[in-house]
Write a structure and sequence with these properties.
five-stranded antiparallel beta sheet; 21 helices; five-stranded mixed beta sheet; Beta-Lactamase
């Protein structure tokens, strides 16, 4: 990895050749043109640079930026659409390229001629035959320009006495000085980057208009507070001043430093900035460049939360499917054993054993369903609702809890209704969970105030829950939505509240975010699509154990009917055996069993069956492949297909199953439930 060389300010050289352009290279790291967008995004996570060169072998091909890839992958479907694209498809528009032989002043002139987004781009250095040599960041050009100006002032002063009689030479030097000063004014005063010169105590001695517009004119005017540290949270001021001390000329580390600090700006509130600081040796000042990364960090945090939620949903679904498969034969065979014990000596004690097995299995099923509700909340009943009315109901429920905790709750609601399409009961539970967390966060605080504010933001209904509690530590902020993670004691919290809130809001196509710092309270912000949005659609509903289409009513048990041919497809041998035993002994049907979708399709091609019972999630060809084959080649048989499954796999698969229009029986099931469904399928036309 290339390192930036020292600037050698003491060496006397003519303007335009003060530095070797190669010495301005900050790094030589790059990515190959055949890498994917996802690989380059991961690369940016491991490196602090805002821009990276894309090369083909050693030849320069173009630039990519951290912000560009964050924008591509940060949208709702951006990761799916672009992650596997080659990076060569997403190069920045062709910008400035410098060669090692270009004079520094020419390099600065060309850099200043750029406009729009191109002005922010770092400058790649490319040698002969297009060989990539390194990256020169814009902040480095600013520092070089500042040092150049300082050197010119020094040079002019040292020669003033020698050139008093040489007016022509003096005029030429002054003309060159005015040119350099003009470039400085263009780069410093008109730069779109916020640039300031600080003294070692953090006082702002000079700044450009962009910097002044961020802080507000009062902050940099004479007689007003002008220390950058005063705009930072108390917890960060010490670290900032320690950083400035590293740039003291007497230290061994006076180079460029990049750190992140928060600033409380007038009219904007607290914003997160990346600060580039470097020492101007000639003046002893510290050049500081500010880059607002608030939105970038919010997008990264949102992507991390969504990734965790998707992983948890997949993990829970897989566990539920496997456990339900294992519990099905336990529950089924225990009931069969109870039936077989009729008339057997000592049946009472044996039946009690079977009942204990059955009750334990049913309790396990309830636990599994609770886990599934964490990742995929139960069926929603969507209807237009006023956020203000729901907040009033939640506040009413919290009244006793607030009085007990000696806390106050303020509702800041608009005069007009904010209508969203949602399940009022579930959204109310989200608000109650957040209010309970806010009350707990203020335990032992002197000031206990909760503010709940509702407003319309673009096409969203926004609700903010603000508390005056102790706040959340930065190392825990990204984990609070993880299941079973909690900062409370074991008797006060399980760590599931925020996980449930996240699951409910994701099912409503909404969002939740948090902003917090130790000692400064927390702000949880919820976004729900407005009911008037044309893009809003109800998420497919999933019931706890059985999705039926068409609906299945209870059927009375009958004597064995006409002999029927049944095919059972399930990768679990014990479930296949259970279904075969039930249908043979109770109905007298002939039952064949296979253990994967491919074998099932082969049997369907070879014979005729009156009823097909299939699992969904199987290795190789799954149940959806079997359903698709039946729909295409045996459409008359589709009305006599029953799906048995421990878990369908997610909302999209639930919808796909509903589109087939076949009944579904959730595992584990009772013998009576299976027999009733099978009889109904053969009775109905």
């Amino acid at each position: 990895m290339g390192k930036r060389k020292s600037l050698n300010p003491g060496k006397e050289m003519t303007p335009g050749s003060l530095f070797d352009v190669v010495s301005l290279v900050e790094h030589q790291e790059c990515v190959q043109i055949r890498e994917t967008v996802e690989q380059v995004y991961v690369w940016f996570k491991r490196h602090p640079h805002e821009f990276a060169a894309v090369v083909d072998g050693h030849s320069y091909a173009g630039l990519v930026s951290r912000g560009q890839l964050g924008f591509l992958l940060g949208t709702r479907f951006g990761f799916t659409l672009y992650s596997h694209h080659p990076i060569m498809d997403h190069l920045l528009p062709e910008g400035m390229i410098a060669s090692p032989s270009i004079p520094l002043l020419d390099l600065l002139e060309q850099a200043l001629d750029r406009s729009g987004e191109a002005f922010y781009q770092d400058v790649p250095l490319v040698g002969q035959e297009g060989r990539f040599l390194g990256i020169i960041p814009v902040p480095t050009l600013v520092r070089a320009q500042s040092t150049l100006i300082a050197e010119q002032f020094h040079l002019a002063e040292s020669r003033r006495n020698e050139l008093q009689t040489k007016n022509q030479d003096l005029f030429r030097s002054l003309h060159q000085l005015r040119q350099s000063q003009g470039r400085y004014e263009t780069l410093f005063q008109q730069s779109p980057l916020a640039v300031a010169l600080l003294n070692p105590d953090g006082r702002i001695e000079a700044c450009n208009p962009k910097f002044e517009s961020l802080l507000g004119p009062r902050e940099v005017s004479e007689g007003s507070p002008s220390n950058l540290a005063d705009l930072m949270p108390v917890r960060q001021q010490k670290s900032f001043l320690e950083l400035l001390s590293l740039h003291d000329a007497g230290t061994s580390e006076p180079g460029n430093h990049v750190n992140e600090f928060s600033l409380h700006l007038p009219g904007l509130g607290e914003r997160l900035f990346k600060l580039h600081t470097s020492l101007v040796h000639e003046t002893g000042q510290i050049c500081t460049i500010l880059h607002d990364i608030t939105e970038q960090r919010a997008v990264e945090r949102k992507m991390a939360i969504n990734d965790k939620a998707a992983l948890f949903e997949s993990l829970v679904g897989g566990i539920a499917h496997e456990l339900n498969n294992k519990l099905s034969p336990v529950l089924g065979f225990s009931e069969l054993m109870t039936i077989r014990l009729e008339g057997v000596e000592g049946q009472d004690s044996l039946k009690s054993y079977c009942n204990a097995i059955s009750r334990s299995a049913q309790e396990s099923v309830r636990i599994i369903r609770q886990l599934l509700q964490l990742s995929r909340p139960p069926t929603m009943e969507l209807s237009p609702m006023d956020l203000g009315a729901v907040l009033h109901e939640a506040a009413s429920i919290m009244r006793f809890r607030l009085r007990t905790a000696e806390a106050t709750l303020k509702l800041d609601l608009p005069s007009t209704a904010i209508t969203v399409l949602a399940d009022a009961a579930q959204i109310k539970q989200v608000f109650i969970n957040l209010m309970i967390n806010a009350v707990d966060a203020m335990d032992h605080c002197v000031r206990k105030e909760i503010t709940v504010k509702a407003e319309v933001q673009d096409n969203w209904g926004a609700v903010s829950v603000i508390d005056t509690g102790y706040g959340i530590a930065p190392d825990k902020l990204n984990r609070i939505f993880d299941p079973f993670f909690t900062t409370k004691s074991a008797e006060r919290g399980t760590g599931l509240g925020l996980s449930v809130c996240l699951g409910i809001l994701r099912q409503h196509c909404g969002e939740i975010s948090v902003k917090s710092a130790p000692g400064e309270g927390s702000v949880f912000r919820i976004l729900l699509p407005l009911a008037i949005s044309e893009t809003l659609a109800a998420t497919p509903a999933v019931s706890d154990s059985v999705v039926t289409s068409p609906a299945i009513d209870a059927v009375n048990m009958t004597q064995p009917g006409p002999r029927c041919e049944v095919l059972v497809i399930d990768d679990e041998e014990y479930i296949t055996s259970l279904v075969q035993e039930l249908l043979r002994t109770h109905l007298g049907w002939r039952v064949e069993g296979v253990h994967d979708g491919r074998q099932g399709i082969q049997r369907l091609e070879q014979g005729n069956y009156d009823l097909v019972i299939t699992d969904l999630r199987m290795p190789g060809l799954d149940g959806f492949a079997v359903l698709g084959w039946i729909r295409d080649f045996r459409p008359n048989l589709l009305s006599r297909v029953l799906v048995i499954t421990g878990d369908s796999g997610g909302p999209s698969m639930d919808q796909e199953l509903l589109d087939f229009g076949v009944p579904t029986l959730g595992k584990p099931f009772t013998p009576n439930a299976l027999i009733e469904v099978c009889q109904r399928l053969l009775i109905e036309p």
